Structure formats: C-alpha cells, structure tokens
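Let us practice reading a record.
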Amino acid sequence: MRRRIAVVGAGPAGLTFARVLHRHDHPVTVLERDPAPDSRPPGGSLDLHEGLGRLALVKAGLLAEFDALSRPEGQAMRILDTDGTVLRDWRPRPDERANPEIDRGHLRDLLLGPLDAQWGRGVTRVVPGTEDGVRVDFEDGRQETFDLVVGADGAWSRVRPAVSAETPRYTGVTSVETSLDDVDTRHPELARLIGDGSVAVYGVNRSVVAQRNSGGHVKVYAKFRAPLDWHADLDPADDEAVRSAVLALFDGWAAPVLDLLRQGTAFFHRPFHALPVSHTWTHVPGVTLLGDAAHLMPPLGAGANLAMLDGAELAEALATCSGDPDEAVRAFEERMWARAGRWAEITTAGLERLVSPDPAEAVAQFDQVQPA
C-alpha cells in the first residue's frame, strides 16, 4: 500500500475516505482550503440512504453514532399546490429509517472525529509523475509530494485538471437560498406549514422548498429556470432587492408559501451545475477523484450519499490491497463510474421533472421515489 496519501477536501467524500483509512490504521493527510471547520455555514440537511451513505457509515464504524444524531422524523414530506392545497402529506412510520436526516455540520463533526485535518491548506494545482511522486502546489507557495492524491474538493475541484479537462456546465436551473431561525417560536404558522421534515410547492418551471434542520432552523430554496446571469442587475448584498426580485417570480402563489421568502434573513445565489452524465477519464497513476469532483450532478439527494460511498470503498480497497495499489485505484474508478453514471441519469431526469412546465411532473416524481 502507498505510504503517502493525501485527500484534498474535508467534505463528506474526503472525510469518509480518511475515516475509513484511519479505522484500518493507515495514515492519511487531509487538506482543506477553509481555515477552520466552522469558518462558513455548512449547508442544509442531508438524508443518508440505505446502501449508499448509511453503508459508508457502516464501513467507517459510525452507524450507531449517526443514528443517535439523525432525525428520522425529518423524512416527512408535504407537497402543496401553488394555491396552498395539500397534494401529498407523507409521514414516516415510527420505525422508518430508510433516509434519516442529519445536519451537514453534525455529519462533518461525526466524520472528523479523531482525524487531524490540515485547515487553511488551499490547493492550487496537482502535478502527477514527478520524480518524487505527485506534487501538490498550495496557495501559500509551498509544495508537497505524495504517492496518491485523492481529489474530494467538490464541483470546482483543483485536482480534477490532473485527470480530466471537463468542467461543470450550467443546467439552466438556479436556486436562491434563504433561511429562517427559531421557526417554531418566531414563525409558528410556517412551522406548521413545513411540518417535521420538508414542504415543496411546484409551479410552472419553478418551485419553493423549505427543509427543517435541527434547532428550529429552516432552509428555504426558490428554484427556477433562468439564464445564469439572471441577477446581473441586482446587488447580491442587497437582500431586499433580491427578495423583491425572487418574490416577483412567484407572484400569485399562496401567501403562506410566499411568507417563506418574505421572512428569510439573507439570500444566496446557487446555480445548479453538472458534469457530463458519463464523466470518465484515462487513469492517471497517483491521482483520482471522489464525489462532486468526479461526478457532479443535480442536487436531488444522491450527491453526498455517493460521495461518502466513494470515499469508503476507495479507502477499503487501499487498506485491503495485497498487490499494486494503483490497480486497486483503477478498479475502484471503474466501479464508481458505472454507479455514478446511473445516478447522473436519474438525477438529470429528475431535475427536468421537478422544475418543469407541467407541475404534475414534479408530483409524479415524488410518488415514484417516495416509500409506500
């Protein structure tokens, strides 16, 4: 097995990879651009699926700890018409744990555990095939070499160019994110609207989704089809101007739905990008990719799950390898590409249905994936 392994990125993919290697007593260097674990908001809640994210936690020996932190009630889902009519109101059974929710920050802390990540180590470039191994160039001008560098650094990966010239492409769908705090106390009527999990409202080529996180925090997403530069005339720091522009897109929708946007505290532009559905590359010894760096796809609940399973499987392959570790990496890539390709097709089609000219398509998508 290679002695010098680095993973770039301390998200779900990178931390799962490092944690499984740690469980097998193999050292790994975790390199992260952020200066500290809590230097920026960690994002919304995640649902970890059987056979994907939950399987990765089994491989990391963390399933019991995850179950203690997760929120099975967060699987609940309501769908409304734009006039406020309830179309679906699905609530999980008391024993339903197929897709329990967990806050991204809680998952990060769980995976981080005893790992000694190096924070504030922004990578600018990875150069394979040097005399001493794979060279990693850092933002501060320093360089280090490793036998294997794993790129788990997300959509705009600095590691990806070492193996692939592909870059993410805009899907035509964008999202504006806002949030509500202390929703049960400050906005009880919206708390009832959202329920224990999420509420989604679908219209023509647009939707509003609100998702509970822990501690009374709610993430709200306004999603719509628009040019990438739809907000070019807006000051992104002017929350009231952004709020007004977004509300105009949903004019005529039920007042309680619009209140999810009216009461939001700050607004962030989140355009959806994706890599080609069947993104692969010619194997490069000493470098590989995981998660969004390898197979960025529309955010329909699969990305973090696939990223974690990628990390767990590659770590196990390396930890149990009795021959050439590079062959283990090559074999892993083939398995990852096949699985990610299937999910990329599913999520690409799903996005088309969820942000569709026919809102009934979105309800049909829900009925297709929701447990009976």
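A brief commentary: The domain at 170-274 is CATH 3.30.9.30 (D-Amino Acid Oxidase; Chain A, domain 2).
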